[in-house]
Amino acid sequence: MAKRAKKKTTGLRPATTLVHGGIERSRFGETSEAIFLTQGYVYETAESAEARFKGDDPGHVYSRYSNPTVAMFEERMRLMEGAEAARATATGMAAVNIALMAGLKAGDHVVAAKALFGSCRYIIEDLLPRFGVTSTLVDGADLAQWKKAVKKGRTRAFFLESPTNPTLEIVDIAAVAEIAHKAGARLIVDNVFATPLMQKPLELGADVVVYSATKHIDGQGRCLGGVILGGADFIDDVHTLLKHTGPSMSPFNAWVLLKGLETLPIRVDRQAASAAILADRIADHPAVKRTLYPGRADHPQAALAARQMTGGSTLVAFDVKGGKKGAFAVSNALKITRISNNLGDAKSLVTHPTTTTHQRLSEEARQELGITQGLLRLSVGIEDVEDLWDDLSQALDKAR
């Protein structure tokens, strides 16, 4: 494993850190980060190999463990998030899975918000119990439920996403962190929808942050990736699990993600600004029953969103009249915005959560979360906002 990162910052603002943070140049002095597309590494002597494997000599031993290009991505993310350490993974779901598994054992208990991405709920409800870890799902906005769900001496982790997928509910991270810490539990926050630019869970009291780097960090539909950030001791545990189970990030993907980080502020600023405009216009359209956007005053947790986020997100959720038929009519009529279950892309994307990302949930569970048959999740891209609105308005007109 590469030498553990010390707790430090660049002293630079985010946009600068995302261009220059963590760069390690080879002897060739390249401008763009190098791709170290290698499986293993060689040593000058048998003694140096022994020292490297013992950890006495910092450096890389195998790219399943660590890699120079991946390490640059990890360090840039660490600096951006303000974490002690970071570890990259092959996908966002690998990051969620490892962040939970690294701190749990048979007999432990997890408390998680009900409003989660479908695969996250699968890990909480189906996968963890196979290894003797029980769980309780709660209404993330109800702090009393978090407190009540704690099992003294057994609850080791709290898990939530905020804003939530797909209804953009906001969870009070600071308040949940306080409850978790009183219970002796670690709070893990999936910060994908907010991005590292609009919300800082560690500053709000969370212990661990996870990202699907596939989303805004790449932001251009090219590759998969994930990252886990937190305290150095915990990330050491994460590293051990990654090393022995193998969901490591490829050097090529790390390089692509480094390039994505360089433009992250430009893209997210544009996307969030456009999302705010579109949310207001969508809300006024007669084909829409309900619009959910954290930057709007009518959002159920508008005050909380303003307190813990610096922007309203790049996503808008809205409920089309006519249920599934109406939602499908809108989706099929779109010409610029494309149908896809991905998000955070430079291209605008729309999905129908009931039949895609949350299809494995029962209808009762979806209704409890506000995921109706007419709900659409819009991920706003970097296109001209007027073109996006022209496209959306003509599509919405067809659902009336």
Please describe what this structure looks like.
The chain has 400 residues and is of the alpha/beta class. It has 14 helices and 12 strands. The chain has helices at residues 14-20, 46-54, 68-81, 92-101, 118-130, 143-149, 173-182, 195-198, 232-245, 251-283, 302-308, 323-333, 363-369, 385-397; strands at 85-89, 109-113, 134-138, 155-161, 186-190, 208-212, 226-230, 288-292, 315-320, 338-339, 349-351, 375-379. Strand 4, helix 7 (173-182) and strand 5 (186-190) form a beta-alpha-beta unit. Helix 1 packs antiparallel against helix 3 (68-81) and helix 3 (68-81) packs parallel to helix 10 (251-283). It starts with 13 loop residues before the first helix and ends with a helix. Residues 1-6 have low confidence and may be disordered.
Overview features:
disordered N terminus, seven-stranded mixed beta sheet, 12 strands, globular, five-stranded mixed beta sheet, single chain, 14 helices, 400 residues, alpha/beta
